[in-house]
Design brief:
The protein is of the alpha/beta class and 341 residues long. It is built from 10 helices and 16 strands. Helices cover 25% and strands 25% of the residues.
């Protein structure tokens, strides 16, 4: 079967000689409908965050059940499902709470399919346990695949701060990319706070307006923080969601977050923050959440089925994987790219 394989630093190849897996026990074989292309893949490909192993890329996956192991219950051939991307041990306390993204044994094992183990940029994908599947019912797997990260990650980050996102507060979204453009939709649907969106290009700021942002600011402007404070007033923004994670965006966040606010850094931009007593307002929580839980992914599916969120996607063939990654490096992907076998 055909697959997009990672062979080492900057070495990604499309191969045609993999054997179709056969599931056993609680394993499930999925016929892939779509596999999302995520910026995290570039950290693996270009920066070597996963080393010493060859595997199939793709951690945003959806498709139809092709075959099940003898111990699988509750699923049958043809069921449309998502694959929850973070694979924990399944037994520790966080895993039992559906938070496999914070599995106690994360440092001892590969993170999941497409992140050290075989993922879904392939014709078929072997999922090690049926507990990692989430039904999508009438959703198209091609459209739904990016929900597993591009929607789940911002949803979980927003949910952490939901009690602070009241109608008399402001929330700032920095970065209107693959995750940020979904965050704007989620905020629009589940909270009352006024939304301010920041990005460095005018087309993405216009896109943010379409998605529900009340205000837009070009974060390249030297006075971006002052522009935001003119909107928020002295109270500043109760929640700042940074989907870039560069030093410049973290610095912007520290200037605009309010007392007892949340500064949540989701993006993997490699930024740094030098803590000082007067660097942040008192009471601020600075966090770096990682994906979300399986139950939160079920909630995300609910939002998508109600048509409250929609991921802007580009469709591409598996053979185009390297071209898509190059366009991603250049910042030319709008929303999310999805590879279709």
């Amino acid at each position: 079967m055909k697959a997009v394989r990672f062979f080492g630093h900057k070495d990604v190849r499309v191969v045609n000689d993999l054997e179709k897996p056969v599931p056993k026990g609680d394993e499930v074989l999925l016929k892939i409908g779509g596999a999302g292309v995520c910026h995290s893949d570039l950290h693996i490909i270009d920066e070597g965050t996963v080393v010493g192993t060859v595997f199939t890329l793709g951690h945003e996956n959806a498709g139809w059940i092709e075959e099940i192991g003898e111990n699988v219950e509750g699923y049958k051939k043809g069921d449309a499902v998502l694959v929850y991307g973070q694979w924990g041990c399944g037994h520790c306390k966080p895993c039992q709470q559906s938070k496999e993204n914070y599995c106690d044994h994360q440092s001892e094992q590969a993170y999941g399919g497409g992140l050290g183990l075989d993922g879904g940029m392939s014709e078929y994908m072997l999922v090690p346990s049926s507990r990692l599947l989430v039904p999508i019912f009438d959703l198209d797997p091609v459209i739904a695949a990016p929900l597993t990260d591009a929607a789940l990650t911002p949803y979980s980050a927003i949910k952490r701060s939901l009690p602070k996102l009241m109608a008399d507060e402001y929330v700032v979204v920095i970065g209107v990319g693959g995750l940020g453009h979904v965050a704007l939709q989620i905020l629009r649907e589940i909270c009352g706070a006024e939304i301010i969106a920041c990005d460095v290009t005018e087309d993405k700021l216009a896109f943010a307006k379409e998605l529900g942002a009340a205000f837009t600011i070009n974060s390249k402007d030297v006075d971006a923080a002052e522009q935001i404070q003119k909107i928020t007033g002295i109270k500043k923004a109760k929640v700042v969601l940074d989907f870039v994670g560069a030093t410049s965006t973290i610095d912007l966040g520290t200037k605009i977050v309010s007392l007892d606010g949340d500064l949540t850094i989701v993006g993997l931009g490699g930024g740094h923050y030098q803590y000082s007593m007067n660097g942040l307002p008192f009471g601020v929580s600075m966090t770096n959440p990682y994906w979300g839980s399986r139950t939160e992914l079920m909630e995300v599916v609910g939002l998508a089925r109600q048509k409250k969120i929609h991921i802007e996607i580009e469709k591409h063939k598996l053979d185009d994987a390297n071209e898509v990654y190059e366009r991603m490096r250049q910042g030319k992907i709008k929303g999310r790219a999805v590879l279709i076998p």
